[in-house]
Amino acid sequence: MRIPIFLWLVLIAIFSSCFCKNRTLASGQCLSLSDQSLLLSLKNGLHFNASLSTKLVEWTQGSSSWPGVTCVGGQVTGLDLSNESISDGINSSSSLFSFRYLKSLNLAFNRFNSMEIPPQVATLSSLEHLNLSNAGFTGQIPVEIANLTGLTTLDLSMLYFPGISSLKLQNPNLRMLVRSLAELKELYLDGVNISAPGSEWCGALSSSLPKLEVLSMSNCYLNGPIDASFMNLKSLSVIRLGSNNLSTEVPDFFANFSSLTALRLSTSGLFGMFPQKIFQVLTLQNLDVSYNSLLHGSLPEFSADSPLRAVDLSFTNFSGILPYSIGNLRNLSRLVLANCSFSGQIPITMTKLSQLVYLDFSTNNFSGPVPSFTNSGNMTQIILSHNSLTGEIISTRWEYLQNLENLDLRYNSLEGSIPSSLFALPRIQKIQLLNNRFSGHVQLNESLKFSSYALDTLDLSNNKLDGPIPPALFRYPELKYLSLAFNNFNGSLDIDVVQKVSRLSYLDLSCNNLSINAGGAASTNSSFPPFSTISLASCHLKALPGFLSNQPKLMYLDLSDNEIHGSIPMWMWTLKNLRYLNLSLNFFEDVETAEPNITSTLSLLDLHSNSLGGKMPPLPPLAVYVDYSGNNFSSIIPADIGKNLSVTIFFSLSKNSFQGNIPESICQAGYLQVLDLSDNSFTGKIPSCMVDVPSLKVLNLRNNKLNGCIPEGFPRTCGLKTLDLSRNSLQGQIPQSLSNCMMLEVLDIGNNQIEGGFPCHLKNTTKMRVLVMRGNKLSGQLGCPDINNSPWDLLQIVDLASNDFSTLPPERCLRTWKAMQDNDGHDHLQLSFLGISGLYYQDTVTVTVKGLTLELVKILKVFTSIDISENRISGQIPNALGTFKSLRLLNMSGNELFGPIPPSLGNLQVLESLDLSRNNLTDNIPPALTNLNFLALLNLSYNRLMGLIPSGSQFATFGSSSYVGNMLCGKPLTKNCTNADRALVPKSPGVHLDWQFIVTGLGFGSGAAVAVAPFMMWRKGRRWYNNRIDRFLLVFLPILGFTYTIWDDEESEDGHGDDVNDDTAFQFDLEKEETWGSANSADPHNQSLQISASGPSQRVEEQYASSSLFTGGHDRATRAHLKKKVVEPTSGPKGSSVCQMLGSDARAMRDENGQDIIPCGCDFKICKECYRDAMRTSDGICPGFRESYEEDEDDGGKGEGEIELGSRKALPSSVSNMSKMERRLSLVKSNGNYFDHNQWLFETKESYGYGNVMWPTEDGKEVREAPRDKQ
């Protein structure tokens, strides 16, 4: 660890002052004339600054006193010329080397301009104490010093300073230097470059210095480990080996040094367990092993006679609880345990530490109350920040701590009121109580003589304080830093009050209930203090404070979330020192700038969520963060914008109305990490260079009008973590080069026209957490069968809905999705950048959960979902899904799944939404699903489930819509379960033949065959029979209050339907709220009959709901969120020219050119014979469209007993211009007297409303409701 320069300067000043106070003074009578002459000669030869000298300047001829000189018996025995600013003058001819009796020489803290130590110093053979520390000497230490065999103290140390050359001891090395210094007791070589391994330097010391008591070799580039020979230095009392690379465990033999008083091993790469018995050395007073992060241990029990005075274990991995016996350390004055892993409560015995001066327990896991420090009257520093302390702080009589200078209780859970006595401590300089739960009013004694107080920092932010801000806070004359943000302070405050604090430079009153008046008479004058930081966010400001224009030193300005209107003034861009400007969430409408460039030095500019419009303002040339999102800018981006993004890291233009192409010059932004251009109207292709920006971490182009393909060319150095290209018109396939983005966490390409299969080539993107590809044209198998271990074990959100996938991934792949099996915590997916500022980009994704389309602005890592709805996936639901214990949402609706629902789904204890509707699931509902206590949405409708609906606490909350379209009974359905219903429940496997039922069945089967066979073989007879049945039901059912809709299922007989069942029996139950017309109700797209009770057709309503993004009915507020795909109705062999009437294999009508004649707009092909039959026997109604062939719907008589189907108007001209396929798939009919084009658009344009979508009716009148905006 290297100590900063300013700290060394302070230390030098302290040491220098110490030397000045210990001056030696020799009298003129003690010195011989010859020695006086030598001293004057020495002075004349030295180069020093007389204005800084305190000793040499007093050496004059005949002087009665010679400061710095010690004499014994008329001979000079000591010279102390420390801190005399000597820069030169000591050379081989210097008179310094003429003092033969000199025993002590001190040249410390001078400025010898990087000269080497003169070897002539060895001529002073009587020397016992040599101190050349921090004198400015550099280079190799002369080996001649080894000849000073009488030395007992040698100090060649120097404070490390970057860029300054140091002394070195390499050739000769340490062994050669100390080989003859057997009398040496104190050795100080701090900062000398020795660069030796442990065995070498330990061996040199132990073999040559048997009397060594003080060893100080910190920052000497020593390597470890500490050799066992080191224990031979049995007289050691002080060991300082800090700031080296020892990389060793702390030797146990340190505890055997019986005279050890100080052990300092900070920043030495120590690891392993610290020996507890070192704490119990009977002579140890100072222990410092700080900044060894791999060193761990715990505190022992302390004896009552422990001499410990200072203990520093900061930034280590010491842990455990503090022993109760810590109160026995009665001599302890300094205890530093910062950034360790201690836990538990702070012992109450701390109150016995009456000598304590400095206490730092910050950044641990301490809990419980703050102990009383009332008896520690000498305390100057109490630092307990970043713990989990609770309770109030009233146990300490704060008025007794008259020497307290710093109280730091930040980031705890302390509560109660803040004692007013804190603000009356005479020496208090810093009070930092932020991020706690303090409440109540801040009370100050108005009668205090504030002029005598030293408080310069007061931070009470992020608490629950309320009431008005005391005016007395602005009476502390030394106050420089005041932060009251994020509290509940209320009332009004005139900004002019801050003029009373002339030294105030930091002011933060943000996010309270304050109303700050910035429009006072004095608010524009220059009497305000020179601020560096002003934060008045969410302070109900109505106007910009005028005094800000006279703040040349202002660096940080936050006025966000206020009510400021008008223009951003010109002077904002002329503040030369302004680095941070946040004006977001206001009502600014214009920006006054000096076109074409902003010349300010801004690093961060945030203007998001205002009403700024028109042309985009210029970019600050040095900004690293620019956010213009959420405004009304509507221009195109300048083509040369890249030149102003040369140092930009974050750039967002989202949620505006920008148009045109994305300029390629953006790719010139070499440091850009976040680029968000989402929710605009950009057109054209994505610039190919955009994916090749090496620094880019987030690329968000969501919801634009981009087309073309996703560019190839993602480089091997790709660092993308978020790629969002959703809701555009992109085509093609997922680029192969995207596999180079191995750090990708969020990939959203949903709602495009991407083709191809599942992106198995992204197997190297092992960080993937969010994969959204819904609403594309992807097909094939889900997952990658050729990969044994799925690379995406962090996947938490998978949305592949509305594609054309056909098979599920193998179970072995599903079992590797570990994030869905384990809880990964409650932090969010986000990208941190500009780490020192705490800024980050928050990922978003749109999911369907609990029946709602939600944009997750903060993606919790605990949120997991799977949505594979609206595909063609067949097969059984995998049992492996039951292992996804952290899954919150599961949507597999609208597929072709079959078989039973796995009981293992009952293991999904946190599941909130389960949708398995519109599949072919069979058997009963597993009772295990009743264990899903968090389930808020359940949809099992339109399957082939049967039997009793399980009862359970959560199941009781679901309505009948969750179960319709099955053969279920019991609550909430109105159908009670009979024995026959219970018999539908699958029983245990086994073979048992009941011949009575078999014979009976054969008899009925034979009879049915005789009756039905003629109709199977006779096409016209079958058609005649079907028409008569339809006509009968159309007359009879409305009398009973039912409605009857004829569904086109001829294709079922021709064998061309994909989802046709053989069972066509009808069931009628007048007691039910809703019923399906056929037993094959698992597929709502192949029904032949619909029957419901009086009122709106429940079948139609359910069909409407099924084509929305979630269930809930046509009259729900959220119906505007529509799905992208509904199963198309079948209409015969595709691409053939064969009559599509059931039972007919004749050619469709053709003209003389051989082209098909299609008499109806629904594209229903028909032969001449069937066409004549339809005109004669079916009122001229098209069998496929159920619409008249004739243009005038009133023409044509109606035969006896025929029912009028109601007049229907033709589609508007815009529909007529569509292709035949578009007309057929977009058709919407209305039962009223007019065609509602808005409803037609609402039903088809966004939902792709394939099929015969019908509007429900009430009492014969069509229900009409304005379409709602899509979210």
UniProtKB/TrEMBL annotation:
Topology in the lipid bilayer: Single-pass type I membrane protein
Segments of skewed composition (Polar residues): 1077-1097
Question: What keywords is this UniProt entry annotated with?
Answer: Cell membrane, Glycoprotein, Leucine-rich repeat, Membrane, Receptor, Repeat, Signal, Transmembrane, Transmembrane helix
Organism domain of life? Eukaryota
Q: Which cell locations does it reside in? A: Cell membrane
Positions of transmembrane segments = 995-1017, 1029-1047
Disordered: region residues:
1076-1097
What does UniProt give as GO cellular component? plasma membrane
InterPro entries assigned:
Leu-rich_rpt, Leu-rich_rpt_typical-subtyp, LRR_dom_sf, LRR_R13L4/SHOC2-like, RLP23-like, Znf_RING/FYVE/PHD
Gene3D superfamilies, per database record = Ribonuclease Inhibitor (3.80.10.10), Zinc/RING finger domain, C3HC4 (zinc finger) (3.30.40.10)
Task: Check the UniProt entry and state the signal peptide residues, or none.
Answer: 1-20
Q: Where is the Disease resistance R13L4/SHOC-2-like LRR domain?
A: 279-546
PANTHER family tied to this protein: LEUCINE-RICH REPEAT RECEPTOR PROTEIN KINASE EMS1-LIKE-RELATED (PTHR48061), RECEPTOR LIKE PROTEIN 30-LIKE (PTHR48061:SF2)
Q: What family does the database annotate?
A: Belongs to the RLP family.
Could you tell me what this protein is called?
Answer: Receptor-like protein 7
Origin organism of this chain? Punica granatum (Pomegranate)
Instruction: Give the encoding gene's name.
Output: LOC116193141
